[in-house]
Amino acid sequence: MQLTSGFILSTQCFDSTHGVSIVVWILSEQGPVKLISPPQKVLFFINEKDVAAATRILAQHNVACEFKPVQLKSFQQQAVVSCYFSSLKHYYRAAKQLKAHFIKVYEDDIRPVDRFLMERFIKGSVWAKGRLIKGQPYPVLADVQFKQNTEFTPTFTTVSLDIECDGEGVLFSVGLVGKSIDAVLMIGKAEDTSDLNFNVIWCEDEIDLLYKLCECVQVIDPDVIIGWNVIEFDFTVLHARSEALGVGLPLGRNNEKMTLRTGNFTRLTIPGRVVIDGIDTLKNATYHYDSFSLANVASIELGEEKLISSDNRLDEIVRQFNEDKLALACYNRQDCILVQRIFEKLKLLDFAVVRSQLTGLELERMGGSVAAFTNLYLPLLHRSGYVAPNSGDHGLSFDSPGGYVMSSEPGLYKNILVLDYKSLYPSIMRTFCIDPLGMVEGLKHPNHAIEGFNQALFSRTEHHLPELIRELAATRQLAKDNEQPMLSQAIKIIMNSLYGVLGSKGCRFYDPRLSSSITLRGHEIMQTTKKWLEEWGYKVIYGDTDSTFVKLDDELNSQSCNEIGTKLARNINKRWENVLQETYKLENFLEIEFETHYSPFFMPTIRGKTTGSKKRYVGRVEKHGKTALVFKGMETVRSDWTELAQRFQVALFEILFSEQYNQELIRQLFDNYVEKLYAGEYDSLLVYRKRLGQHLTDYQKNIPPHVKAAKQYLAHNPNAQIQRGQVIEYVYTLKGAEYYTGNHKFDYGVYVNKQLLPLVNMIIEVSGTNSKGLYSSQIQLF
Fold first, then answer.
1. Nearest 5°: CA angle at 580, between 574 and 582?
2. Strand, helix or coil at 341?
3. What is the rounded CA–CA span in Å between residue 70 and residue 81?
4. Edge-to-edge strand order for the sheet containing 158-165?
5. pLDDT in tens, 299-316
6. How far, in Å, CA of 140 to CA of 272, rounded?
7. Would you say residue 490 lies in a domain?
8. Domain range holding 235?
9. Are 131 and 197 part of one and the same domain?
């Protein structure tokens, strides 16, 4: 027997002669290794009372099933039995037939290979001991015993892949850039490439291109293939063309074929390799952009542009393929390089590895917060004697409320402190033992339970999430201490997703009693915090989910404010310790922190009203001897306001927050901007950007300006491509809203009235000055 360890690259399961084989490819220190389990049985559960009916139904459909009693029950306290199958075919057929006959089936949607790994608490890395099969290109271990491994961290070889094709998906070229390759496979007759600093591999046709692509991948032998929308587009197109042309794609190790299945998400398997998409990884690492297009992200993160940037990009790609193949090759290669550099700069592969090690999700599986929760929670639930519920088993229909948002008191303030609860929702779950199993056991034994909301009760001893949160919090602190930002960020994302998962109807553990016991407890904590602060003589002007904004006296200096903030946080934490012990006999894991001192601070009104706004404010902070403006929800951070408005707003607040602030300075700034605007000096700042939430054809009534602009542009440019989710750039001209092309006669009055004056009026209204005397007629200014 041979022992090895490594990181999981790909997983599959197959029907074999004696059962189901689990096949796992890993990357070990010595290279890739293929692991094959002994024959396995796959299973789901049904209620014990349904065994007789299930036996009859499965016999009628020639499905072989073995029923075994287990020490498990449902959340409804009904005993269940395991249904074991030696064939995947029978497993899936059985679940379908039983549900068709209204027999409740539990956990049949857990992929057998996922169950195999999660029940062994295997996350990312694994120990494996098995029998070495000799004579294989790569090491192959059979009859493998798998064990959890928390130590192994991989070092991958990667290649960046990008395809070019026409609108029908007919292939033109494939770019490959990595440590051992820098090439573009291009269909066409060979041309002189001596002026290029990369290889062009000429292909006769699509079939030849697909063959040579597979040959290249086998030669460079990457562990990881990266790209931009690479699964949903590039590999989906490659798969479609291979199917249409009758060509297999042996891209896997041992020349094993790629498989692609569509459903709720596209599942791509290349045995022995993993494909990771840049867009999905960025989103899961909580990066935010107006557009996740490669052009936009590369421009922001790298300061580099794609080689084709025209609106009719597809037309230009087709033209280059027909007329200038070397230019297309350069474009194709450049996209590969941009992806590679983004991955390297933002350490996206490191993030994906850490996330897999924490959750057990496949390296390429992005999104998947519900799947990650299931991976972590289900094995623990089984060991507590329960099977997971099906969605909707609770039979409740009410919705839980969102986070607490307090009404604000608009105004201009000299000193505002922000006190922020650290990881509020996870802290509530840990303190009040909020947990799916905990609620089942709490309702079962109410006399010793902790009261939640909407008749929820939680066991003080039988639960898993509080301990899981404790472990995650401790690991995150260790990651911070050891300067491991990727690990810290991944843990933060997982912890913050726990409430979201329990509040999502797509999660099998969703129960509105659970989610409302978290959010309503949050409401109670925020209201209590405000009450205590007011008892101590302070004024609270705003509160949002986990943050409380406290007004201090204008005469206080920065040092005094910071000392008060630290003292208030300490006193609130001490009071929670006492209250929770006296009222609930619970240990306190709530922790409020003094986060920020704003001086000055501006809270606006809701536009057109006198009441205070929510989730919108501006403040000035001082850090390391330097001051900076912080905008929340304002025009400077909203993509649907122009750069003109954003720049003007910053200038306005620099005046407002200055010692010399007066109305005349505001007037001068406004006049200066208007003068330069009409002189054309700000033309490059006048572009609006708005995302298409629907397909253009879906907009029928109340058509917004960006949609009108896009429709008019398409009417004159029928070959242009505008898709749902695309960010539309448009401007206001004398003809109204027009799609931005860079050459327009602007209607400057629109920008004065819609972008500049509302900002001036917002400040004047809140700062107590009547704006009517300042600009009595907006149009008569000019």
1. 100
2. helix
3. 6
4. 199-203, 181-187, 171-178, 158-165, 224-227, 274-277
5. 999 998 888 766 568 888
6. 12
7. yes
8. 158-356
9. no
